[in-house]
Amino acid sequence: MEKLYEKIVTEVALLLKDRYSKLMKPFNISNLIKKYGPGYIAKNSKTGRVVAHAKRLDTLFKKTGDRKDIVISWVPKSGARYVL
What's the superkingdom here (predicted)? Predict the structure, then answer.
């Protein structure tokens, strides 16, 4: 029974690692800053293409509707330094 539990936990951990490694890829945002300016963007999670952009989140939610295949990202203003 313990072996089965360990196997299930290992499989779930590998699946989560694979899923989050795909979602959390770093990318260069300088082109996004030039094109859209500071605010929020909605990207298609499969293709990475920008679907919509807005200065405020509520406006972005109105533009995207009930779509489940998007990832929302924050774009800082140009030249700003942030430590997270």
Answer: Bacteria
Kindly state the DSSP code that residue 76 receives in the 8-state scheme: P
Q: Using pLDDT thresholds of 50, 70 and 90, give the confidence band for residue 55.
A: very high
**Owner of token pair 């539990």:** 5
Let me know: does 27 contact 43? Beta carbons within 8 Å.
no
Phi and psi torsions of 14, nearest 5°:
-65, -40
Would the pTM count as exceeding 0.85?
no
How many H-runs (helices) and E-runs (strands) does the chain carry? 3, 3
Nearest to 71 by CA among 38, 55, 47, 36: 47
Q: Could you count the other beta carbons within 10 Å of the beta carbon of residue 67?
A: 13
CB atoms within 10 A of CB 60: 19
